[in-house]
Design brief:
- With 537 residues, the protein is an alpha+beta fold.
- The chain has four domains: 49 residues; 195 residues, Beta-lactamase (3-Layer(aba) Sandwich), CATH 3.40.710; 129 residues, DD-peptidase/beta-lactamase superfamily (Beta-lactamase, 3-Layer(aba) Sandwich); 116 residues, Beta Barrel (Lipocalin).
- Helix content is 26%, strand content 21%.
- It contains 13 helices and 22 strands.
- The protein has an eight-stranded antiparallel β-barrel with strand order 14-15-16-17-18-19-20-21.
- Helix 6 runs parallel beside helix 9 and helix 6 packs across helix 10.
- The longest helix has 25 residues.
- It is globular and about 75 Å long.
- The two termini are 33 Å apart.
Length: 537
């Protein structure tokens, strides 16, 4: 960018002067001076903004951290009491926070050397990860390969992978390793996909061309379930959630998102920043957790190097692609940064040279967005706050979970149990939205068809909200149950992206019930939400 401005400045100074036929032409000369001044001003501003205290060479960072010993969280995270003891400037971190507060980020977590340096916003609250889930698939593949359940050189024909439209001989020859690089050459419509501009079917051989393709990603999850013999959420729970002591994850935070266009569902994840941070820390330590090598370090090294060199500006901001991870190829390349990326700013960044994990999550239920360029500016400011090597034993404090006892899960009148539907007026591919209100494991839940399962929390008589969908403090869009004039059970729900109240009418009685049990343990603050997002992302 700087070199481009220098070229423009030189071009304006020399060539444009030659092109002025009449030097006394005040209008032409005035325009030239203004243009030259504007370019010079932008150049100075850019030089000022880039002449930061951040050293993106690895030498300084490695020197700072040469004698540090990594921490690992136990039941709860630990946080630096005084950032200066860890080598970070409080004042500069405050400046970074001012920048962050102007964004639409909902949660930011910065982990340095295994302890929390920065925790801003709702870091305990579960948000949809969107496409960042694909990097979680990489972790599960790593375990399945270590257990010899998956062979990267197996073809789709070997694995009996099919589709509604039969695969061609060429498509059947695609290998697992092609799918995890998004290079299968198979261009079918896919569930949970907003990219409708796929190449022509048969236009590329397997392994020949990189194309960001949800069909590949969804089939990856089909293969994981097929080869391990268990649902993907159970495999994730056993191999990752339990060993890492994830604090907020539950099996219900993963669900099947099916669409008529494909037989392979997507499996969206909901996860908190503090849980995602543990996963980042596992990868930062090359698969080692405390004294246990949970996943092969070779798998992580191979997964997080660039296998597909992408044209600059084609996707992201200076990024290449590995095995289901994005690989930085911009000013952060020297810090070896790689990351998981999801819609509207969901990011898990691992920065090995700086011994950092950075998590950003956005409330996409509200259509919030934190653009990548802005996130990288924030990262610049955070990195600029590193000023020295840490003390040998910085003072740490436990981060106990925040709790609220103001609400509890509750029961509902029997006649409101059952399946409801409402017309869908925001997605032309979906005629009706369906939701079932029932008891599951003694908890009152709302199960949204292809949209996940949520605990229901009673906020007033016949009024409920869905956990994780919007803060209880706001309580703006509750589900309000009532009986219609014709005696049908129904509820009103205001959808954030439709800007109108939708009436769901009961169409089927609840068939099975278990006993009602009030939940007595306290709830975490920020764990509750009331907007309903049924869009494809």
């Amino acid at each position: 960018m700087i070199s481009r401005l220098l070229k423009i400045y030189t071009h304006v100074t020399s060539d444009h002067l030659k092109n002025i036929q009449n030097p006394s032409d005040d209008l032409n000369f005035s325009n030239l001076v203004q243009m030259k001044s504007l370019v010079r001003l932008n150049l100075l501003l850019l030089l000022f903004s880039c002449s930061s205290e951040v050293d993106y060479s690895s030498v300084q960072w490695l020197a700072w951290d040469k004698d540090t010993v990594s921490y690992f969280p136990e039941q709860y995270w630990e946080k630096y009491k005084i950032p200066e003891e860890a080598g970070w400037s409080i004042e500069k971190l405050k400046k970074a926070k001012l920048f962050w507060e102007q964004s639409q980020s909902s949660a930011l977590l910065v982990i340095y050397n295994g302890a929390i340096l920065v925790s801003w916003g709702e870091t305990e609250r579960r948000f949809l990860l969107h496409s960042a889930r694909k990097s979680l698939d990489n972790i599960m593949y790593g375990f399945a390969i270590d257990e010899e359940l998956v062979d990267l050189n197996s073809t789709l024909e070997d694995l009996n992978i099919t589709e509604q439209t039969p695969l061609t001989t060429q498509e059947k020859s695609a290998k697992v390793i092609d799918l995890i690089q998004s290079r299968s050459g198979i261009y079918f419509p896919a569930a949970y996909d907003i990219n409708k501009n796929s190449p022509k079917r048969g236009s590329a051989k397997p392994g020949q061309k990189w194309h960001y393709n949800n069909w590949d990603f969804n089939v990856n999850e089909t293969i994981i379930e097929q080869q391990t013999g268990v649902p993907i959420e159970e495999y994730f729970n056993e191999k990752i959630a339990k060993p890492l002591d994830l604090q907020d994850f539950r099996l219900m935070d993963v669900y099947d998102h099916k669409e008529a266009i494909s037989q392979h569902p997507a499996h969206p994840f909901r996860m908190s920043a503090q849980d995602l941070g543990r996963i980042g820390l596992l990868y930062l330590n090359k698969g080692k957790w405390e004294n246990n090598q949970l996943i092969s370090s070779n798998w992580i090294e191979e997964s997080t190097r660039a296998h597909s060199k992408l044209e600059k500006g084609a996707v992201g901001n200076g990024s290449d692609y590995g095995y289901l991870w994005w690989i930085s190829d911009d000013r952060f390349k020297s810090l070896e940064m790689y990351y998981a990326s999801g819609l509207n700013g969901q990011r898990l960044r691992i920065i090995p040279t700086a011994d950092l994990v950075v998590v950003n999550l956005v409330n996409t239920y509200k259509r919030h967005n934190f653009a990548e360029n802005d996130q990288l500016q924030l990262l610049d400011k955070i990195l600029a706050a590193r000023t020295s090597e840490p003390k040998s034993k910085p003072d740490l404090e436990k981060m106990e979970p925040s709790v609220s006892t103001s609400t509890e899960f509750d029961s509902i009148a029997v006649h409101f149990l059952g399946t409801y539907e409402a017309p869908c007026n925001f997605d032309p591919e979906v005629e009706k939205m369906k939701m079932t209100i029932q008891y599951q494991d003694d908890d009152l839940i709302a199960n949204i068809e292809y949209g996940g399962t949520y605990n229901m929390i009673k906020v007033s008589e016949n009024s409920y909200i869905m956990e994780d969908m919007d803060c209880i403090e706001e309580m703006r869009f509750p589900m309000i149950f009532f009986i219609t004039e014709d005696g049908t059970a129904a509820f009103k729900l205001e959808l954030a992206f439709v800007l109108d109240k939708v009436i769901f009418r009961k169409i089927q009685k609840q068939v099975t019930m278990t006993k009602i049990r009030l939940r007595t343990e306290p709830l975490k603050k920020g764990a509750l939400n009331s907007n309903f997002n049924a869009s494809h992302t």
